[in-house]
Amino acid sequence: MCLAIPAQVVELRDGDNAVVDLAGVRKEISLALVENIEIGDYVIVHVGYALNKLDPEEAAKTLELFAEIGQLGDDTTVH
């Protein structure tokens, strides 16, 4: 099963790329499918692409649910 998960944008790169952070893991992704993303925003990421921007409160709820079912570590709090 593949999951689309919320991640926080921590760095914008040239082109349509960005670096996101999820529970301390940083990964470069593509922002080609979304617009107006800034550092600190949360995006839903699936197979290396941001699919849409996510409200910080919704990101927090989703990350808490993943943590509860054991899919993420305990340090996935939204800042």
Automatic annotation (TrEMBL):
It comes from Candidatus Dechloromonas phosphorivorans. Belongs to the HupF/HypC family. PANTHER family: HYDROGENASE MATURATION FACTOR HYBG (PTHR35177). GO terms for biological process: protein maturation. GO terms for molecular function: carbon dioxide binding; iron ion binding. NCBIfam families: hypC_hupF. This is HypC/HybG/HupF family hydrogenase formation chaperone. InterPro entries: Hydgase_assmbl_chp_CS, Hydrogenase_HupF/HypC.
